[in-house]
Amino acid sequence: VQLQASGGGLVRPGGSLRLSCQAFGFPLDDYVIGWFRQAPGKEREGVVSIVIRDGGTLYADSMKGRFTISRDNAKNTVYLQMNSLKPEDTAVYYCTLDLRGWDKTLDINEYDIWGQGTQVTVSS
Description:
Elements: E1 2-6, E2 9-11, E3 17-24, E4 32-38, E5 45-51, E6 57-59, E7 67-72, E8 77-82, E9 91-98, E10 113-114, E11 118-122
Parallel strand pairs: 2-11
Antiparallel strand pairs: 1-3, 3-8, 4-5, 4-9, 5-6, 7-8, 9-10, 9-11
């Protein structure tokens, strides 16, 4: 059971990136996936959560309107489209899995399996 995050990089303020989170060894269908991020010197914070089976989502307030989560069940992958990026979005972004899969949540304690993280740097 493994999650692999990818798609990070260096982007200018106002730019966009799409992160991917692919699951290996199990189907995502019955679970909840979350994206979290951690900036240097700060605690890991929730970005967005999605219930795979029904597509229900929960966004952190600061990401609403800029970030969009989506899923491709055939590819067993969840995407995070990030637009209008700001320097304060600079962080390592992690995808994570809630094995109980009941409901969307940004509570970090609800998540069981973590990917390795991908670095997003927003700078001019």
